[in-house]
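--- STAGE predict ---
source: upstream dedup step, 1 unique chain passed
mode: sequence only
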Amino acid sequence: MRLLTRCSMECGGKLKSVLRTSVVLRALSPSRSGRRSGARRMHFLPGPASEDEREYAPPPRGWYPAAYGRLLRLAGSLRGVEVADGYLRHAATGSLVTDAHAVDRMEHFEALAGEFAATRRGPPLKATALSSLTKVCDVLGVSAQRRKNVRLTVCPQVTQHHVWRGALEEVLRDLREDMGALDAPSPATQMAEQIASACARFLSDTADAATSSSPSWMRPTPYRKPAPARAKTWQEVLDMFTDLAKFLATDTRLAGHAQKVEAMKEGLYQIHDIIIERSIAFKEARHQDCLVQRNLSKNLGHSSRGLYTLLLFYLYGTVRDIEVNIGRSLSGKDGKNVTVHAVKFLINGDELAVQSGIKQLSRALGVLKFVWEAANTDIVTTEYSGKDFVVKKDNSVKGVLKLQGHLWGLGVEEKAVTYRGNVFHVHQIRLP
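--- STAGE serialize ---
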């Protein structure tokens, strides 16, 4: 009986290895991915945590020469494009690449390059998307108890009025740029473009040209008041965003932008009654500013994509989510220390491409570091004093987070680069 059990276990392990090898070999066939056009991924190497990863069987030796030749051909056909902030874009202009064949070729390139990276760095890559605080916390293994710390730390910083307004304007700017690059836009897309332009003008008209870093209503009332105009509220922006989301939903090429519009609508529902009049008195303006921050902080939950969008704009001035492959290794007492390795594959091996890749990876690691520190800071109290939020903290970090970035490319010079406190390793893709 013991002999039969042992034979059964050994055969099962060999069968798993054969199945995994067949999956790897599929990377040489044309991509049939159904992922939306334009959305791209950076990659995180998983840590050796699971039994499946420890049993990973690499492709047969003869697989690599054919795969390397395919990599070279794919890289040649993809010259002039790059993966930037989760999207496939033209390197020269930054405009969105909507060609489905180019998107498929990029996915195929990344799948093959991932196998070459695995020969030197461990098991295959696993994909996810950093699109909310919840997903970032899942990557870092933040407990449910400490996720409240994240929200209480993030909200007072990112719900300030100039951050909120700036994020809205950035969502519209990105949308209008990518809609302008579309070939043969549909009537619905054309209507969406008109609405986005009208909403951008509305925000511009109510902004303070003198100080973009402060709320538009915080300017003192001028000595000679202009003729009174109709008071405007955020309800008008909410109405435009509601119509905008409806029209964007008809074009799959703009699916990522539609999700951002929906995310910002969540916050607009909380502040739709707030007045955004320019000539309001200073005292009332300060009160309204605090109302905006209080309503958003109170009602934007931890899982809110809108809250995560505000965090991205607060940190980097961008609102684009980062699609990644995630993995981590744990160490220390109770596994509180976390090590994360981030990987990006380069089509072009020149120095400009390397620098661009480092900056993109740096943003991903920066979000992870910010959330980690927020999660591992004990919040003693957080309260609204009538003028501002008061947060008292005990800066006792509960673990150590180690972040590294890895860039893989054809013909690149192997080296290590330190950028903003993180180490980025540049590796050349070559035959093992």
